[in-house]
Write a structure and sequence with these properties.
five-stranded parallel β-sheet, FAD/NAD(P)-binding domain, 21 strands, binds flavin-adenine dinucleotide, binds 1,4-dihydronicotinamide adenine dinucleotide, single chain, Enolase-like, domain 1, 31% helix, 476 residues, alpha/beta, globular, five-stranded mixed β-barrel
């Protein structure tokens, strides 16, 4: 085989595989090297997202949400299903099937785009050469005109509560429980803690979440965070803010967690399983040989410019291993953008308009600036909000919770941020993303016809409310 390529991508997650596919679509000769291995030793493309992140977590969120709704909501519809129970093994089997189907699909997509898919480890050598070690240990050397580094991230460990992969686990471990833990401890009330805490709480676990920060979801609009916290509490998540964990040890099959509460008083917590999800760190172990010139910053991220170029000729880096939010859609956009840039095409990633979604119930989603950020910027602004309680569709869905909040500039009416907590917020935010990508004003949304009765009318009404022209609620 001729091992010279136009582009070699190292990493086959949401940053790497789209980069490889787009480079293939652009008519280039491409190889994509991915080293992912599952617990059972099988190799699979798709990285964290498909194997141990976005997709398996959403599969479990869906199953457990249905279970929860069957128990708590069906009676309101007049449906009496008798005693509803959850077969955890069947739920996990379904999830595993979805993951297998999706990861197998990536291999097919790479093939269809003419990409050479290689499973094993890649290491960048000086001069755009790549050492490839297949999973069977065989080695060979490849070279390319361009190399794209897309090695992703791994969970951050907590020194005082080290993973033992049985009682103290990371997010992947928490996706694989074969039974509902009676008592579940979660360290970190971030996106993973809230999603996976919800999964196991809905199945009956007593869930205590220890969060170091005194504020809940400090990155989100605080009105949104306040509303979201109300719903997590209603579900039964015991979220303890300002908690500083000083240690965790396994004793007699249980985990004893020691922490100081917000007032500084020593506290202890005994749980059957402890999930540590305090963020993720870029993963670059073994990726860069001596002398490549690629720089890794003090936090472990590969240094890149605004276009994901490392500063070393024709070496690029994308996704979780570089600055910016650790999100699959950001990773994908960067991968595709770099592949187009390599082919000499126009490309641009708009980092100001990256949506965030937390797949809780109700969902939480936002894009653009929070009200706190707009206020701090000094720009005059107006806010329009609309509660889902006033949405006929939400009421019909038994989902009249939460609201849409739209922030627009006072001077030119441009939409600066949209924040939603409510049913299908993760889908609804797409309209706001598109509007902001096109630099829309709130008037543009006001003049756009939204089908009735749909949840999207709530965004329409929030835009109208920004000018005190809402129809389906009193304007204040
Ligand atoms: P990764 O997905 O980590 O992929 C990197 C790949 O490169 C891996 O397969 C790795 O094995 C491989 N690799 C690394 N080094 C080498 C090497 N030297 N040689 C060969 N291969 C190598 N994001 C969202 O947007 N939405 C969500 O709903 C969401 N849910 C999540 C839920 C959980 C539980 C977790 C943990 C994460 C979630 N994320 C979500 C984040 C998302 O998974 C990441 O942002 C995304 O996977 C980053 O893509 P990536 O390609 O940069 O890295
Ligand atoms: P995160 O950054 O979202 O949250 C970590 C939380 O842990 C923070 O609230 C932080 O204050 C807290 N924390 C840090 N150190 C602590 C300590 N010692 N004790 C107690 N609390 C501590 O990180 P998380 O949840 O691990 O997720 C990692 C990444 O994965 C995120 O960046 C996120 O973007 C991505 N992700 C995205 C999802 C989505 O888009 N729906 C779902 C899951 C993950």
């Amino acid at each position: 085989m001729n091992d010279t390529y136009d582009v070699i991508v190292i990493g086959g997650g949401p940053a790497g595989y789209p980069a490889a596919i787009r480079a293939g679509q652009n008519g280039l000769k491409v190889a994509c090297i991915d080293g992912w291995k599952n617990y059972d030793g099988s190799a699979a493309f798709g990285g964290t997202c498909l194997n141990a992140g976005c997709i398996p977590s959403k599969a479990l969120l869906e199953s457990t949400e249905l279970f929860h709704r069957a128990r708590s909501e069906f009676a309101a519809h007049g449906i009496h299903a008798g005693e509803v129970s959850m077969d955890v093994a069947a739920m996990q089997k379904r999830k595993a099937g979805i993951v297998k189907g999706m990861t197998g699909g990536i291999a097919q997509l790479l093939k269809a785009a003419g990409v050479t898919a290689l499973q094993g480890r890649g290491q960048l050598l000086p001069g755009r050469e790549v050492a490839f070690t297949a999973h069977d240990g065989s080695q060979r050397r490849l070279s390319a005109k361009h190399v794209v580094l897309a090695s992703g991230s791994v969970p951050t460990a907590l020194r005082t509560a080290p993973f033992d992969c049985k009682h103290i686990v990371d997010s992947w471990g928490a996706l694989e429980f074969d039974a509902v833990p009676k008592r579940l401890g979660v360290i970190g009330a971030g996106v993973i803690g809230l999603e996976l805490g919800s999964v196991w709480r809905r199945l009956g676990a007593e869930v205590v979440v220890l969060e170091a920060s005194a504020a809940f979801l400090p990155i989100a609009d605080q009105q949104l965070a306040k509303e979201a916290l109300k719903h997590f509490k209603k579900l039964g998540l015991d979220i303890r803010l300002g908690a500083k964990v000083s240690g965790a040890e396994v004793k007699d099959g249980a985990v004893q967690v020691a922490y100081a509460d917000a007032a500084g008083a020593a506290q202890s917590l005994t749980v059957d399983k402890l999930v540590v999800c305090i963020g993720r760190r870029p993963y670059t172990e073994g990726l860069l040989a001596e002398g490549t010139g690629v720089v890794v910053d003090e936090r472990g991220f590969i240094k890149v410019d605004d276009h994901c170029h490392t500063g070393v000729e024709n070496i690029w880096a994308v996704g979780d291993c570089v600055r910016g939010p650790m999100l699959a859609h950001k990773a994908k956009e960067e991968g595709v953008s770099v592949a187009d840039r390599i082919a000499g095409l126009y490309s641009h990633v708009n980092y100001d308009v990256i949506p965030s979604v937390i797949y809780s119930a109700p969902e939480i989603a936002w894009v653009g600036q929070t009200e706190e950020q707009v206020k701090a910027s000094g720009r005059a602004y107006k806010v329009g909000s609309f509660p889902f309680l006033a949405s006929g569709r939400a009421r019909a869905m038994e989902a009249g919770q939460g609201f849409v909040k739209l922030i627009a500039a006072q001077d030119d009416d441009r939409i600066l941020g949209v924040h939603i907590v409510g049913p299908m917020a993760g889908e609804l935010i797409a309209e706001a993303v598109l509007a902001m990508e096109y630099a829309a004003s709130s008037e543009d949304l006001q003049r756009t016809i939204h089908a009735h009765p749909t949840l999207s009318e709530a965004l329409h009404e929030a835009a109208l409310a920004a000018d005190k022209r809402a129809i389906d609620m009193p304007n204040r």
